[in-house]
């Protein structure tokens, strides 16, 4: 999860708040981040990217044109025309928040079908407690519309800007070991998908899948390769209240506590600051609706931030990287975490101030946020911290889940690495440390195989793909240890390329998924070179070339895959000896 490193003091936050109030008072129109699709002539000759403006391997993706259907019927006729001429197709969402290049159609002339205008709530059934929405509806809309009807999606990602189609596509989740767990796909009871079909069926077909249809296990987490999801019906609950308290502890017994903690609190999660040897435990449970409290959680890192501030923060980080200023990074990391901690990470009693824990409020005002989506339109005075149109955050994310049965051992291995090099992970603490969330085994073919903890690790990325980063070796060792020693499963909407290499072998129903893919899209029109690679249908997720390990395009096997001229050579890991990492030699780290 990306984070604004709040340098120096709380003042910046206050400034940001003032700015937003000013904008509101001045009645200046507010609008979200940039569009992922840009076309040179109206809706044709396009490029497509993600909300960060860069894929992990920095590919630039092109498409012939983009269309914006407003109904399922329109999607059917668009798809029918495209199938007839066997065009490559991808569904693109309003903001395109996934990091990997899932959104890229092959070649130059692919078709992009945008769900930007498929954004209506279709139906709410209070008896069944279900809600049916079009696939381009954002999480923010979904949460708000459900709440108006007295309903709640119990577990969800923490960021408003995702669409239901996209978040299902990559298996997005919140944090819980209760009920069916925190993955949104496990609350899908019905879906409508428009897929390619034979000429005699008019080249396009609408599939309606409910829980009694096994294909739903593929469709509810599909990487977008089955067709256009047009509608989704989710099982909801009555709206409820929660009580949240963050408690900071040292991390010595984290490995021992982590499983019990997750079972004890319904919405538990953890921010781990491994170099500070600290952990923020989120104690978060349901409370009866008559308990008083009107808490609101606008997570600080997802708030609108002054571009000028972001630019200063980025410059400081770049300077620290180039001067190898570990001390500076550790000092700033402490500042960031203590600032976030003392401001309760953005949690407030009422939307304005925080006076102390616990904060109690309605679920829909606590479960997820993203006020930076309302940043000022064209001026870019404020923005989401990672908006590529300004000089701001630029990072990699390594995110994977590790089964509860072995997670203690993984945590202890990371702690061993830190004890050998205590300051090595200050850099990721600038991004609020390692975010740990609980996820349960799923019936989705690409879902979690066992109950697990998802780890989100966010860290500095240089604008220069050939530049190594501080403690590159430690970050790489953690990544490879998770994957190859602990058989971690990736978050499909994040990560660098190497994480997906051979990953399908870890899914017991991977073969079932591929069968369903062939049934719905026999010509592979919704597939691309990238999806074929990650699904194990062709090689090439990782590519060996100069400097490839620096951006996670490969695991190094020769020095040239690192940055030998800058002193980074390919070496074995320190704890996980099978790892091959780019380590700095000669000089002390
Ligand atoms: C700030 C931020 C916070 C995040 N927080 C979380 C979090 O808390 N938990 C979590 O799990 N993840 C989180 N993520 C990751 C996020 O869940 C995924 O990247 C998600 O897939 C993005 O959704 P999107 O709507 O932007 O979809 P996109 O990235 O645009 O699309 C994802 C895939 O789904 C396909 N797709 C989209 N819509 C359809 C459709 N209608 N029919 C067929 N295919 C479709 C696309 O083609 C693509 O393959 C976060 C990301 C960001 C940027
Ligand atoms: C397509 O766009 C590119 C720039 O993105 C431009 O160089 C090229 O001339 C355009 N082609 C057509 C046919 O418009
Ligand atoms: C609502 O759900 C109930 C129970 O499943 C069902 O009987 C009823 O027909 C549904 N109503 C509508 C309008 O779909
Ligand atoms: C699921 O779909 C099948 C076939 O379309 C239908 O017969 C059945 O009644 C549906 N089940 C539910 C629970 O809606
Ligand atoms: C809430 O309601 C329950 C009964 O529904 C009651 O027992 C309890 O005392 C009430 N609590 C408060 C804080 O009003």
From TrEMBL:
- Which transformation does this protein catalyse, written as a reaction? L-gulono-1,4-lactone + O2 = L-ascorbate + H2O2 + H(+)
- Which E.C. number(s) belong to this protein? 1.1.3.8
Q: What keywords does the record list, in alphabetical order?
A: Ascorbate biosynthesis, FAD, Flavoprotein, Oxidoreductase, Signal
Q: Which domain of life is it from?
A: Eukaryota
Q: List the GO molecular function terms.
A: D-arabinono-1,4-lactone oxidase activity; FAD binding; L-gulonolactone oxidase activity
Signal peptide stretch: 1-30
Task: Give the CC-aspect GO terms.
Answer: membrane
In which pathway is this protein known to take part? Cofactor biosynthesis; L-ascorbate biosynthesis
Where would I find the FAD-binding PCMH-type domain in this sequence?
A: 59-239
Q: Which InterPro entries match?
A: ALO_C, FAD-bd_PCMH, FAD-bd_PCMH-like_sf, FAD-bd_PCMH_sub2, FAD-linked_Oxidoreductases_BP, GULLO2-like_C, GULO_Plant, Oxid_FAD_bind_N
* Cofactor(s) essential for the protein: FAD
A Pfam family found in this protein is GULLO2-like_3rd
Task: Write down the PROSITE patterns for this protein, in alphabetical order.
Answer: FAD_PCMH (PS51387)
One GO term under biological process is: L-ascorbic acid biosynthetic process
Annotated NCBIfam families = pln_FAD_oxido
Name the protein family.
Belongs to the oxygen-dependent FAD-linked oxidoreductase family.
Can you say what this protein is called? L-gulonolactone oxidase
